[in-house]
Amino acid sequence: MEVWQAIILGIVQGLTEFLPISSSGHLIIFPWLLDWESGGLAFDTSLHLGTLTAVLVYFWRDIWSMIRVIPYALSKPLPIIKGESGDTERDHFARLGLLIAIASVPGAIVGALFMDEIEAFFHTEENSDRAIAVIATMLIVVGLAMLIAEKVGSHRHDIRRMSWLDAAWVGVGQALAALIPGTSRSGATLTAGLFRNLKRGEAARFSFLAGIPLIFGAGTLGLVDTIREGMTSAEAMNFLAGGIAAALVGFLAIWGMLRFLQRQSTHVFVYYRIAFGLVLFGLLIWR
């Protein structure tokens, strides 16, 4: 892989990790369409670390506030989750942290149990056409689900009114995205939030925050393996180029997405997902 290819894929990762159109799907599709070599474990790790950096920098105040109240959150988790402990800022961030923990559990379980099988199916040459068909299907299916969520959701609630059940549904969305590329972690979690009557911007904000533990876990595991295996000088250049591109573009994507959803619906992403999925099916037929 050339450095310029690493930068392009870093840009793709930064955009698609936080827009509801599937980062894993696009990172499989681009090399398939352009016949690029795989960047390997080190490069995939750099992309995870890049988007992790973006979300940590953007939400550092919220993250720090949640870290500071961890002892308080653990001292009486059930009353805090139920909203019975009070309505102070300390209670809000303690509750937010606990809801994020709940939302992280399903995805972590799926990743631990099925990651090897997912890698074997979606990242091997012999399965490439079938993998693209699955991605195209999920692009369309989740796009239609997002459209339905837009229609039936009331868009009234903010994060302060979320219940543990709302967080669990977001977690189910994260698990589905971890299991099947093309689903989109942000797409599935945003859709789950809309179905649970969250405002669009609030659903996106919780989606980004809830993704931090899983992105951190994937990035950390990949980094440990990368350090163990080592990198060539070319791989190190791609690692830096892709990671920096993903971090910069990811930060801008978070900023833009939150502002966009304060004024607009998710329809543009629905249309994109459906159109792109149909294009992929067309390419599979005509290849």
What radius of gyration results from the CA coordinates? 19 Å
Order of helices and strands: HHHHHHHHHHHHHH
Mean pLDDT: 91
Secondary-structure-based class equals mainly alpha
- The share of residues in helices is over 70%
Largest sheet features: none
Query: Helix count, per DSSP?
Result: 14
Distance between the termini: 24 Å
> How many structural units, i.e. domains?
1
- Compute the number of strand runs: 0
Q: Which regions contain 5 or more consecutive residues with pLDDT less than 50?
A: none
Dominant shape:
globular
Please give the oligomerization state of what you see: single chain
Range of strand content:
under 5%
Could you explain how this protein is built, in words?
The protein is mainly alpha-helical. It has 14 helices and no strands. It has one domain (3-286). Helix 3 packs antiparallel against helix 12 (212-229), helix 7 (89-122) runs parallel beside helix 9 (164-179) and helix 8 (128-152) packs antiparallel against helix 14 (267-286). The radius of gyration is 19 Å and the shape is globular.
Map the helices and strands.
Layout: H1 3-18, H2 23-34, H3 40-58, H4 60-68, H5 70-75, H6 77-82, H7 89-122, H8 128-152, H9 164-179, H10 185-195, H11 200-210, H12 212-229, H13 233-263, H14 267-286
What labels describe this entry?
single chain, 0% strand, 287 residues, mainly alpha, 14 helices
Summarize the structure.
82% of the residues lie in helices and 0% in strands. With 287 residues, the chain is mostly helical. The protein starts with a helix and ends with a helix.
